[in-house]
Amino acid sequence: AMLRLRLLTWDAKDTLVRLREPVGESYAAEARAQGVRVQPGALSHSFREAYGAQSRRFPNYGRGQGLSSQQWWADVVKQTFRLAGVHEDRVLTLIAENLYHDFCSARNWEVLPGAGETLRWCRQRGFHMGVVSNFDSRLEDILSQCNLRHHFDFVLTSKDAGFAKPDRRIFEQALRLGGVLPEQAAHVGDSYTRDYRAARALGMHSFLFRAAGQGEEPEVPPEHVLPTLSHLPALIEK
């Protein structure tokens, strides 16, 4: 039977858009522009550590503690460089500011293969669409720069919602924005826990976008798995 879907919600990072290069490469290039030489590998490593520590201390981009996205990220960037041995505050402040703005733009992000065509197909079929993403306030800009924003009725970030996936409350907000019941909606994302399982726990349909070579989660029936985004139309029309 054809699914009676009215709303499709989408994860953003690594589902619709992805970074053009590893974080360490972008950070090293910005440092070079300020006359500072650091190995990209060292920065990638220290970024993971700094990002993890900041996320534990100030979850969801510091929303509960009143931090702006920019303050939250400035601390991550500065700590990343400090752990890699760069300590000059004036330079770190400049690097952090430049990187924050760079990561708003299509310079650092690219659209995943098949995303544009699939979203267009979904619009033509009359689906309402929204983004549900654990992201900070820059997501609207990134989607606009990548020429995807116009496909969506709403963009709901964890920073705006006040809850991060897999918390059911961010999905409940999305359903309210879409004006539909859970069983009339399907979510598409690349995380088994935050996307696939979280949406199903609420009674939504969901599809796990899993590029070739990613791990196999046992509980996912093959008809819920998208090897590419272009597989979605066939699964929806089943």
Automatic annotation (TrEMBL):
Gene Ontology CC: one annotated term: nucleus
Highest taxon of the lineage: Eukaryota
A UniProt-annotated Pfam family: Hydrolase
Recorded family membership: Belongs to the HAD-like hydrolase superfamily.
Descriptive protein name: Haloacid dehalogenase-like hydrolase domain-containing protein 3
Organism of provenance: Podargus strigoides
